[in-house]
Design brief:
This protein has about 250 residues and is of the alpha/beta class. It contains ten helices and eight strands. The strands form two sheets. A six-stranded mixed sheet has the order 2-5-1-6-8-7, sandwiched between helices. It has a two-stranded antiparallel sheet with strand order 3-4. The longest helix is centred in the C-terminal third of the chain and has 21 residues. The protein is globular and about 55 Å long.
Length: about 250
């Protein structure tokens, strides 16, 4: 870390937990204040949602041209039935997305080698449910260069709250929107009904995620009751959590 800022913040949580709202809030904070209070300077976002959505669109286009869909299907199977809604043909693609984010990070540093030296922060954002390997499996596909620089901010909501907020934000006219996309209820339940976050972070007292050769400092932003609907409620709690993560990072 340089100039009191984090190099990489891995931003995790259930769908609609408030990850994008945290990013949106930080974007609104002047950089000097953001660096001082939240240890985030100029920042870039790497999110796997635009990558997976583009794959759905690409397969739609190929199907419209009478070509086979490559990696996705327009339906998903759950509880012995098929339902309308996109899905991946094979689960490995979830890990491909994590590796793709790492490639994007490498290209960012290639094109701007001094980014971190100037206090720049990269957010790597993704959700994972136990159904497709969970967070533990996703972290196995992060590169050493990411893990050695990263801290994790987890936004906590229950499954029921994730479902409620997913319904609230969903805009069917903008399914590709970061802030307005949503999942069908059954698909949300299939993919994210079960989470392995508690297992991954079982050593809560240490404040570190065990990622093989790497220990990643983490903190939990408690979004129950909801705070991400009001910047005045986000700021004090986020400042406290990010401060604790920074203390842990200094001990790493």
């Amino acid at each position: 870390m340089k100039q009191s800022t984090f190099d990489i913040v891995i931003l995790n949580g259930r769908p609609a937990a408030g990850k994008s709202e945290i990013i949106d809030f930080l974007r609104s904070v002047p950089v000097d204040e953001r660096q001082r209070r939240f240890h985030v300077g100029e920042f870039r976002e790497l999110d796997d949602f635009p990558i997976l959505w583009e794959q759905f669109e690409d397969d739609d286009l190929m199907e419209a041209m009478s070509r086979p869909r490559l990696l996705t299907e327009a339906t998903f199977e759950y509880r012995g039935k098929r339902h309308p809604g996109y899905s991946f043909k094979e689960p490995w693609y979830w890990n491909f997305l994590i590796r793709k984010l790492c490639v994007q990070y490498e290209k960012l540093l290639r094109d701007d080698p001094g980014f971190h030296d100037r206090g720049g922060t990269v957010f790597i954002e993704f959700s994972r449910g136990a159904e497709h390997g969970g967070f533990r499996e996703a972290y196995r596909h992060l590169t050493p260069r990411v893990l050695e620089r990263a801290v994790t901010l987890y936004i906590h909501v229950t499954w029921e709250e994730s479902l409620r907020k997913n319904r609230r934000r969903y805009n069917p006219d903008k399914p590709d929107s970061i802030l307005e996309h949503g999942l069908e209820d059954l698909k949300l339940e299939k993919l994210y009904g079960q989470s392995d976050w508690d297992s991954l972070s079982e050593n809560q007292q240490s404040g570190f995620l065990d990622c093989g050769d790497y220990r990643v400092p983490f903190g939990v932003f408690e979004n129950m009751p909801e705070k991400t609907d009001d910047a005045a409620k986000i700021a004090p709690h986020l400042e406290t959590v990010m401060g604790r993560i920074r203390e842990l990072a200094e001990k790493r």
